[in-house]
Design brief:
Helix content of chain A: under 10%
Shape of chain B: globular
Largest sheet of chain B: 7 strands, mixed
Oligomer: heterodimer
Number of helices of chain B: 0
Structural class of chain A: mainly beta
Largest interface: A-B, 21 and 24 residues
Number of strands of chain B: 11
Radius of gyration of chain B: 13 Å
Order of helices and strands of chain B: EEEEEEEEEEE
Low-confidence stretches of chain B: none
Strand content of chain B: over 45%
Shape of chain A: globular
Mean pLDDT of chain B: 92
Number of helices of chain A: 1
Structural class of chain B: mainly beta
Distance between the termini of chain B: 38 Å
Order of helices and strands of chain A: EEEEEEEEEHEE
Radius of gyration of chain A: 14 Å
């Protein structure tokens, strides 16, 4: 049962334009959300996160938006750069007492930024 | 900050051979540890997690097993590898609200 879903397996964007990666979740207990970036043959690295008490978090070119009523979050990358080409994983966690803080991951979206 | 050491980086093993992948963690104590697998074209599948020495939980029935002999050591094993065990194996350590991942092991079973 996939509690975190990334319905777009791939996204192709021109350099300099905006990349928007989407993520949906089903578990209303999730209260913390993260995005990880993964290059081939490497482990994922943390990119940005957001708590459920916020609806937006920004870090440089990266902004995450959270819509709790829709159980939807998105990652915006502006402007996109060729080095952003990677697989992006959305992840969510519930309060520690229930699931020990375990992360639930989506299947990932392959972003390709072309010159 | 946490550092995760995972080895080997790549491994080619014949079907039916044993497997042992090791993960060690620095910079923290009593961490929650995880083994994930990413098969070709697929997402991250949680295989095992551990909240302490000797405490292992399995997420999916499979040909693999895990052990945690020391606080900061997590081992993934198999007695006899199958072709379907091929994939990219990742060790992760809980870090606040997220994870720190190791660099991964690419396992190819031939």
């Amino acid at each position: 049962d996939q509690q975190v879903k990334q319905n777009s397996p791939s996204l192709s964007v021109q350099e300099g334009r905006i990349s928007i990666l989407n993520c949906d979740y089903t578990n209303s207990m999730f209260d913390y959300f993260l995005w990880y970036k993964k290059y081939p043959a490497e482990g994922p690295t943390f990119l940005i996160s957001i708590s459920s008490i916020k609806d937006k978090n920004e870090d440089g070119r990266f902004t995450v938006f959270l819509n709790k009523s829709a159980k939807h979050l998105s990652l915006h990358i502006v402007p996109s750069q060729p080095g952003d080409s990677a697989v992006y994983f959305c992840a969510a966690s519930a309060p520690r007492g229930s699931t020990l803080g375990r992360l639930y991951f989506g299947r990932g979206t392959q972003l390709t930024v072309w010159p | 900050s946490q550092t995760i050491h995972q080895w080997p980086a790549t491994l080619v093993q014949p079907v039916g051979s044993p497997l042992s992948l090791e993960c060690t963690v620095e910079g923290t104590s009593n961490p929650n540890l995880y083994w994930y697998r990413q098969a070709a074209g697929r997402g991250l599948q949680l295989l095992f997690y551990s909240i302490g020495i000797g405490q292992i939980s399995s997420e999916v029935p499979q040909n693999l097993s895990a052990s945690r002999p020391q606080d900061r050591q997590f081992i993934l094993s198999s007695k006899k590898l199958l072709l379907s065990d091929s994939g990219f194996y990742l060790c992760a350590c809980q870090n606040g609200y997220g994870y720190t991942f190791g660099s991964g092991t690419r396992l190819t079973v031939v």
